[in-house]
Each structure stands twice: as structure tokens, then as C-alpha cells.
Amino acid sequence: MHLTALSLITMVIFSIWQTSLKAFLISLMISKSSLTKRENDILKRILSGMKNKEITKELFISSKTVGTHRSNIHSKLHVRTITELYFKLKSDSLIR
Known about the structure:
The chain is mostly helical. Helices cover 73% and strands 0% of the residues. It has five helices and no strands. The protein has helices spanning 5-31, 37-47, 52-59, 63-76, 82-91. The longest helix is centred in the N-terminal third of the chain and has 27 residues, at 5-31. The two termini are 27 Å apart.
């Protein structure tokens, strides 16, 4: 399928908008929880698809620290896995 430059630009803009909206809704849900600022930073990166190793490099923290934050996030949001968190957000209509 041949995409015109305009349709390609439209797809890119929509993708950016969709990502921004998702980040906003996640931030809204997170702000209602008791997560610390750093836990919020970690959670946003996890939900955006980053792996622990990428998070450690971006935030200049150890992998053990990321693991501790992940554990705290799971405990505070009453989920055991990121998958559960995703479905919790989905059921609350915060993401599609």
C-alpha cells in the first residue's frame, strides 16, 4: 500500500496525540494514588514500554532501586503485575 506524505504525517500526528492522551490519563489515575514522585516517574516509563535496564540508564538509578519502586507501585495500587495494572486502568476507562 502506497502512503502519501500527507497520510503519513497524519498517522504520525495521530500516534503522538494518542500517546500524549494515554500519558495524560495515566497521570490522572496516578495522581489519585499515594505514589511518590519517583514512583510516578517509574510507572510512566513502565507503562510506556520501557524495560528496567532502560529506566536505570535514563534516571541514573540502580536496577535494585527500580525493582524497589516497582514493588512499592504494585503494593500501593493493589496489583501483582503490570498486566493487572493495565487491566485495572482499562476497566476504569482510563485507557483503551
